[in-house]
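Weekly modeling sync, notes
Attendees: S.R. (lead), two postdocs, one rotation student

Agenda item 3: backlog of single-chain predictions. S.R. asked that every request posted to the team notebook include the full sequence so nobody has to chase files. The rotation student volunteered to paste the first one in as an example of the format we agreed on. Action items at the bottom.

Example entry:
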Amino acid sequence: MKKVIVDRLRSSDWYAGTDRNAYIHRSWMRRGLPDDALDGTKPQIAIANTASDLAPCNMHLNEVAESVKQGVWAAGGVPYNLPVVSLGETQVKPTSMLWRNMAAMAMEEMFRANPIDGLVLLGGCDKTIPALLMAAASVNLPAVVVPGGPMLTGHFRGEALGCGTDVWRLSEEVRAGTITNGQFLESEQATIRSKGHCNTMGTASTMAVVAEALGMTIPGFAGTPAADARLLSMSHETGRLIVDMVAQDRRPSDIMTTESFLNAIIAAAAVGGSTNSVVHLLAIAGRLGIDLTLADFDAAGAGVPVMANLQPSGRFLMDDLYRAGGVLALLSQVKDLLYPEPITVTGTPLVEYLVDRPVYDTTVILARSAPLMEDAGIAVLRGNLAPRGAIIKPAAATPALLQHTGAAVVFDSIEDMRDRIDDPDLDVTADSVLVLRGCGPRGYPGMPEVGNMPLPRKLLTQGVRDMVRISDARMSGTAYGTVILHVAPEAAAGGPLAFVRTGDVITLDVENRTLTMDVSEEELQSRSQSPASEAAYASPDRGWAKLYVDHVMQADTGADLDFLVGGSGDKVSRESH
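Predicted structure, as returned to the notebook:
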């Protein structure tokens, strides 16, 4: 272990001394530890572990934690498994996003309250890496991310299955009548082949890439398949690294700078990443006091080509990306677009790891001269339907629909949409614009992934496979389509989305970044006076949901709670004994 350059380990506030308090702290922790484990010279490292049998993408993280532990011991630190709140994207109702902020708040408090000098953050499933980074940013102890990795590709009838993406695709084919429900269900056994998170460039994979681009992983870690032995090797190295990070006093605020966030935006665009990265990056930046805005996503992402031929935008899956050279090989193709100054957890700038990174399969990582799309970063739309912004992922959209005008078909809730979407008498055509409201942070509550509304059955049977869809909800990173999301302000906060009526003409113009409805300001003002405009969104009367609704901010600022923005550092001023 390198010589400690900090004056005093934070954990010494618990363990140093000969008084009763130090005695209590040390004696209760010994339980087989070496005699010198608590002598004030060895960094105490918490492994913030989101393993849970009910978070299936993170089930394997206990095994990963053991490799981290061995690395910490080898480097002269003392490791501790610290189970923290885990959110299984596919399991929790009504939506895991309702609890991202709760998980981050609980993690932050436990990081601060315990005798910890450094943190290893084990995440995988969609909300776990964002929550861990939000917490680590607020407490600002030395920290490093271990991404749990994507699953291996499953196959059905000889074809690769992208989990999530092919679920959406096949379920629509059932509704269209082109395959049977039995055939759909038969594929279920093949979809999830191994441990790990989704194998598409969905939110989980995107957030691993984002963590690496922010500098918060060992470079080259993101995208390592969960079943690959090299994931355990990298986890061991991460355990060794965190001990050095404590010695060097290298903290999240040193690593995640404004330029780091811009690099993360560029990286997310280059891999065709999930729109969910927007709301998560905004929230993480807010914890650091960095004034990141939607405009930064449009500016930094402008002109960034999609280099990854991965579902849902392209053809391949995450283990293909890894064999083709991995995330660093892909980022090396856009190195000239990245800011050179931001460092990583190693203390070395990210761009220095992008030298001599060959691409081994140019059908997966495309040549800069022939990208999947020339300019496909997240597009931010504004107009009288979204005064504070809405977003769309052009790489996942139908090009012909990126400029479109059509009449609105409005649904007031997800239940209303499900009740009516397949009604043969629904007045809808392929040119209609489907509008869903009441699904934002406050209105749902929690901002679920329902923005990629199913298409009306009668249009599916006619061969229609995409339509313009608008909502204040989110969309799964594994999903696709011409879907406008995160409309702000949301309907439940009195945004114009609340006042759209079926038949109103809506125009989408992605090139000019506008989303407008052909309704005068006077008419909108008149509609806003309706007593039903916000009354439809009942507020919860107790528990976390009430706290959330009372304090959640809008999507354009990250949907964090207003009182959680910023951080309180790592200091604890009082002794409990």
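Discussion: group reviewed the output briefly. The longest strand covers residues 403-411.
Action items: rotation student to repeat for the remaining queue; S.R. to check formatting next week.
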